[in-house]
Amino acid sequence: MERTDAEALDRTDPLAHLRDRFDLPDGLIYLDGNSLGPLPRGVAERVGRLVGTEWRDDLITSWNTHGWYDLPATVGAKLEPLLGAEPGTVTVGDSTSVQLFKLLVAGARLRPDRRVVVTEPGNFPTDSYVIDGVARLLGLTVRWWSSDAEPPAAVLDDDVAVASLCHVDYRLGRMHDGAAVTRAVHETGAVVLWDLCHSAGAVAVDLAGWGADLAVGCGYKYLNGGPGAPAFGYVAPRWLDVVDQPITGWFGHAKPFALERDYRPADGVRRLLSGTTPVIGTAVLDAALDAFDGVDIAAVRRKSLALTELFLTLASDRLGAYGVEPEVPRDHAARGSQLCLRLPEAYGFVQALIARRVVGDFREPDLARFGVAPLYIRFVDVYDAVEHMAAVLAADEHRRPENVTRAAVT
Ligand SMILES: Cc1ncc(COP(=O)(O)O)c(C=O)c1O
Ligand SMILES: Nc1c(O)cccc1C(=O)C[C@H](N)C(=O)O
């Protein structure tokens, strides 16, 4: 495989034009969109308008005249096609951790006679922390599923209230079969809560088709909503009228401005809201999602697999000589949109690559992680990135003192 072969793949890529929808720094190969997506074009103008006109000139009237009050629903409607979700089932607000807290409690309340939450030890830590916290609050037991064998029959019984699972694993990018796991959970009468942080915007998600109950996910990774973007929450249509989340703030009330004494949940998914919408962050996510206008998520998935396949082939060819092996599920059905390399000096390796303007990230204890975001990553980026990786290893740059001092955020 030569660089010209990668260039040829870019020439025939039906999604190649989408890269222009992003304002990417010159010469940067950005393989960290699974942590923080880049800036979509149009966002800066939207923020300028929001701050310079809507806030400055129109002030409080903007809640009505500029659609601030409806923003969670507006953004939810843009997310629904990306998640395979039914109309009116998705809203945004809070962090993923808080959405998870609210929907986990709500999920447990759907099965009040059951005492167990099933989850996986390989979760992103916030999921495990929140699950533990909710279990202590509600007096539930956490049962850990080591998910090498699917479906999770061994850990499911009629005491399980909720299975709270990450669809794509943040470390090695292993992807669950959403339909099969949901079915297995339902067979025991439990509900399933999916964390879609590493799925939304990168892989095909079909919440309606899976029959999922509840889902959450963050706005700042493949959805490119900016640092600290609001997260999303999904509630299946069959639960919309009964779902009972615990942070019963006024923005989720049926009539917030009636200022009634008692809480009454809003109709539909709006009842997931708690406090005042963070308008600036939500408007950024709204504008960012325009990058997905007219984009078929199945085509995104096809390109994602082609990119990771190229990455895998090149990394196996070029890096094996240095004892570095790619870690990615070989089975396409079980692969997210990322690839890892395992090596003892993974931290220094990532720093040396950043010095060469190839950005990935380090995950404890020995993983160098690279996300491929099909909207803006080219085949030639993957080719060049692997060439840089080989050059780092050949010159021992990953062991240089300036590359091994840990920063606060990795
Ligand atoms: C699977 C998963 N869940 C949740 C989060 C983060 O949650 P929060 O938005 O609360 O920081 C992340 C990444 O930060 C994640 O990878
Ligand atoms: N949310 C992050 C942050 O505030 C700073 C740095 C990284 C993150 C991340 O999103 C980490 C990410 N969830 C991961 O998969 O590792």
From TrEMBL:
<comment type="pathway">
    <text>Cofactor biosynthesis; NAD(+) biosynthesis; quinolinate from L-kynurenine: step 2/3.</text>
</comment>
<feature type="binding site">
    <location>
        <position position="198"/>
    </location>
    <ligand>
        <name>pyridoxal 5'-phosphate</name>
    </ligand>
</feature>
<comment type="pathway">
    <text>Amino-acid degradation; L-kynurenine degradation; L-alanine and anthranilate from L-kynurenine: step 1/1.</text>
</comment>
<dbReference type="GO" id="GO:0043420">
    <property type="term" value="P:anthranilate metabolic process"/>
</dbReference>
<dbReference type="GO" id="GO:0030429">
    <property type="term" value="F:kynureninase activity"/>
</dbReference>
<dbReference type="Pfam" id="PF22580">
    <property type="entry name" value="KYNU_C"/>
</dbReference>
<dbReference type="GO" id="GO:0019441">
    <property type="term" value="P:L-tryptophan catabolic process to kynurenine"/>
</dbReference>
<dbReference type="GO" id="GO:0005737">
    <property type="term" value="C:cytoplasm"/>
</dbReference>
<feature type="binding site">
    <location>
        <position position="96"/>
    </location>
    <ligand>
        <name>pyridoxal 5'-phosphate</name>
    </ligand>
</feature>
<dbReference type="InterPro" id="IPR015422">
    <property type="entry name" value="PyrdxlP-dep_Trfase_small"/>
</dbReference>
<feature type="binding site">
    <location>
        <begin position="124"/>
        <end position="127"/>
    </location>
    <ligand>
        <name>pyridoxal 5'-phosphate</name>
    </ligand>
</feature>
<comment type="subunit">
    <text>Homodimer.</text>
</comment>
<feature type="modified residue" description="N6-(pyridoxal phosphate)lysine">
    <location>
        <position position="221"/>
    </location>
</feature>
<dbReference type="InterPro" id="IPR010111">
    <property type="entry name" value="Kynureninase"/>
</dbReference>
<comment type="function">
    <text>Catalyzes the cleavage of L-kynurenine (L-Kyn) and L-3-hydroxykynurenine (L-3OHKyn) into anthranilic acid (AA) and 3-hydroxyanthranilic acid (3-OHAA), respectively.</text>
</comment>
<dbReference type="GO" id="GO:0097053">
    <property type="term" value="P:L-kynurenine catabolic process"/>
</dbReference>
<keyword id="KW-0378">Hydrolase</keyword>
<dbReference type="GO" id="GO:0009435">
    <property type="term" value="P:NAD+ biosynthetic process"/>
</dbReference>
<dbReference type="InterPro" id="IPR015421">
    <property type="entry name" value="PyrdxlP-dep_Trfase_major"/>
</dbReference>
<comment type="similarity">
    <text>Belongs to the kynureninase family.</text>
</comment>
<feature type="binding site">
    <location>
        <position position="195"/>
    </location>
    <ligand>
        <name>pyridoxal 5'-phosphate</name>
    </ligand>
</feature>
<dbReference type="InterPro" id="IPR015424">
    <property type="entry name" value="PyrdxlP-dep_Trfase"/>
</dbReference>
<dbReference type="GO" id="GO:0030170">
    <property type="term" value="F:pyridoxal phosphate binding"/>
</dbReference>
<feature type="binding site">
    <location>
        <position position="220"/>
    </location>
    <ligand>
        <name>pyridoxal 5'-phosphate</name>
    </ligand>
</feature>
<protein>
    <recommendedName>
        <fullName>Kynureninase</fullName>
        <ecNumber>3.7.1.3</ecNumber>
    </recommendedName>
</protein>
<keyword id="KW-0663">Pyridoxal phosphate</keyword>
<feature type="binding site">
    <location>
        <position position="250"/>
    </location>
    <ligand>
        <name>pyridoxal 5'-phosphate</name>
    </ligand>
</feature>
<feature type="binding site">
    <location>
        <position position="97"/>
    </location>
    <ligand>
        <name>pyridoxal 5'-phosphate</name>
    </ligand>
</feature>
<keyword id="KW-0662">Pyridine nucleotide biosynthesis</keyword>
<feature type="binding site">
    <location>
        <position position="276"/>
    </location>
    <ligand>
        <name>pyridoxal 5'-phosphate</name>
    </ligand>
</feature>
<dbReference type="GO" id="GO:0019805">
    <property type="term" value="P:quinolinate biosynthetic process"/>
</dbReference>
